[in-house]
Amino acid sequence: MPEKNYFTPEEKENVKLVYRQLLFHSKPVISVNDFNRMRSLISEAVQTGHYQRNKQGLNPVVRNLNTALILCDRVGLERSMLISVLLFNLVVSEFLSIEAVEKEFGSDIAQLIRGLIKSNSLYAKQAAVESENFRKLLLSFAEDIRVIIIMIADRLCVMKMINHHPNEKYRYDVACEASYLYAPLAHRLGLYSIKSELEDLSLKYTNREIYDQIAHKLNETKRSRDQYITEFIQPVKEKLEAEGLNFEIKGRTKSIFSIWNKMKKQKADLEDIYDLFAIRVILDTPLNQEKADCWKVYSIITDMYQPNPKRMKDWLSIPKSNGYESLHITVLGPGQRWVEVQIRTHRMDEIAERGLAAHWKYKGIKSESGLDDWMNNVREVLEAAGNGGALELMRDFKMDLYDKEVFVFTPKGDLYKLPLGATLLDFAFLIHTGIGCKCVGGRVNGKIETIKYKLKSGDTIEVLTSPNQSPKQDWLNIAATSKGRVKIKQALNEQQNKAAEYGKELLQRRFKNRKMEMEDGVMMKLIKKMGYKTATDFYNELASDHIDVNRVIELYLEIDRKESGETYEARTAEEFTLQHEHDETKEDELIIGGDVKGIDYKLAKCCNPIFGDDIFGFVSTEGTIKIHRKDCPNARHIYNRYRYRVVNARWSGKMGSKYITVLRVVGNDDIGIVTNITSIISKEKNTHMRGISIDSNDGLFQGHITVAVDDTSSLNSLIKKLKTVKGVKDVQRGSVN
């Protein structure tokens, strides 16, 4: 680079250092010949007086080189962006024509420079900080999204350069602009490291006293903070290594701006802000194991430290709209201090740090045409914002980072993500099942649309409902999302179940009038014999008078007379046997348990007896004996109709194998409640969880948890503890399906 008197000594050293770093980092995308050519052009422009400092005295060579280095370090290697930044001022100063750039470096770079010139002209026309329309104008001029990325990087470069600038008002104006415009844009693009630094520098220039105060206190407490982080990390590190995970773990002090925000929100001093730092666990794991390994780390850490369910943030299941993926938890660490832990993989971490550029890499967008297609979608979003003003435009300015997803808004501005091809009906069910069931259409961007309307990114949707509406079978052909179809099926099933319940009640009343007990086992055989696949279908037909009730009763009696076997299926116990204990003064009694030898028997599936339950035996026509609990739902029927086949039974004094049973848990559908439940089960001695299924609806969840226990004492103890979990409303024994 030419020296002369153009560079100050500090600038000269900076240019040499940055030039070498830029040359090294950009090798994968910019050839040495291209770099030497640009160096020659810039040197000649400086020598001929084309590279003039701006009115604030900033050196454009220093500015452009440092902006290019920020793009390399913070965004990623994209050839057109880097070359455009370095050649931009050559075109602005008319040292080089745009046609010459296009001929030597390509049309994409020429087009990008045109966009930079157009957007940069805003500064020459008006005061950006004072203009309420600046955001809208900026996005209107930015036909290429890369222009905005370059402007964000350039703004960070300028913020770093003006630390000692003599014009205080200039520093203040640039800082305000960075805070209200460029930092939010960086956030939308997922450029979190740039966003944080812009916010910190903005606070530094607008409120130096607060900035210095927080920075000074952070420096004073650094040693004790580092010591605490080490104390927290060490046992976690040992546990993760023992599990064979590849990872790195580190502590990170939060940005000064975010700490200042917390101080304002909580109206507290720095000493009272507990989460000044966060622990980050970064896993090195294959793509197909990412979520599983992240949740594995979550389980390990929450086993060691008590989690705070209210502060859990799951961006693994549903990433942010800018692509951010991570699992954030807050746990109670040593000394009863709350500590935030961020769990992610190297891929997720790169996306978090580099945002958009990392998505180019991981989505495999290599050709310019592929990138153009992606940017066309973004422009459609910007155009869909309409004339709603700057704030609405900023709200609608978001990056559709996934080529198979759309992002839409409610009238209140809440953002929702759905698969490409989703309809207005899908959106209604995503908001709430009740709204979906009553949906008759919607108002999309102010225009009335039907439930078949296919959503587009940027749409603002108001769902219209009617109390007379109910789900229809053809809705399954309208809904494009699996979630929407599942909820429609559930609603249709609920309608059918209500009709089926009425049909069943009708039949039960007829049985009662004849003083008969309706046995489920016989009914299932009857339903099957009549050609129905499910009991619901049968009872629906009964409710709609398509089946004669009297004919059903006659067929039931016929089957019951022919059936000599017991109709309750049971689950075979492993290696369980029985023996008779003879006593002249007592009736015959079965002695059962793990230490008993004799005839094999089975545990009835309908009631799942376990060691310690009051039980009886039932001799089936096949000669096998099935063990039921005395409070079994079928006990009354068995005693009334087959008393002669019932034998007394009791457990032996020695406990045998594990017994499988199911717990039905009902509670509030709250984040973390399942974690608390499974945590209690895992800590119970000699108790093992075999399976869990969860179903949630209208703010409540119902879970069926299969556990293996030793006896009723262990089971009752577990039930008692589960009932103490916050949000759990009821815990009962169920049956194994």
Helix/strand layout:
Layout: H1 9-25, H2 32-47, H3 60-75, H4 79-92, H5 98-105, H6 107-125, H7 134-141, H8 145-161, H9 168-188, H10 192-206, H11 208-220, H12 222-242, E1 247-253, H13 256-266, E2 277-283, H14 290-304, E3 306-307, E4 313-314, E5 327-333, E6 337-345, H15 346-354, H16 356-362, H17 368-384, H18 390-396, E7 405-409, E8 415-419, H19 424-431, H20 433-437, E9 439-444, E10 447-449, E11 461-465, H21 475-478, H22 482-513, H23 520-529, H24 535-543, H25 549-562, E12 570-581, E13 589-593, E14 599-604, E15 615-619, E16 625-629, H26 635-641, E17 646-651, E18 659-668, H27 673-683, E19 688-697, E20 700-709, H28 712-722, E21 728-733
Parallel strand pairs: 2-6, 13-17, 14-16
Antiparallel strand pairs: 1-2, 3-5, 4-5, 5-6, 7-8, 9-10, 9-11, 12-13, 12-14, 15-16, 15-17, 18-20, 18-21, 19-20
Helix pairs in contact: 1-3, 2-4, 3-4, 3-8, 4-6, 5-6, 6-7, 6-8, 8-9, 8-10, 9-10, 10-11, 11-13, 15-16, 19-22, 22-24, 23-25
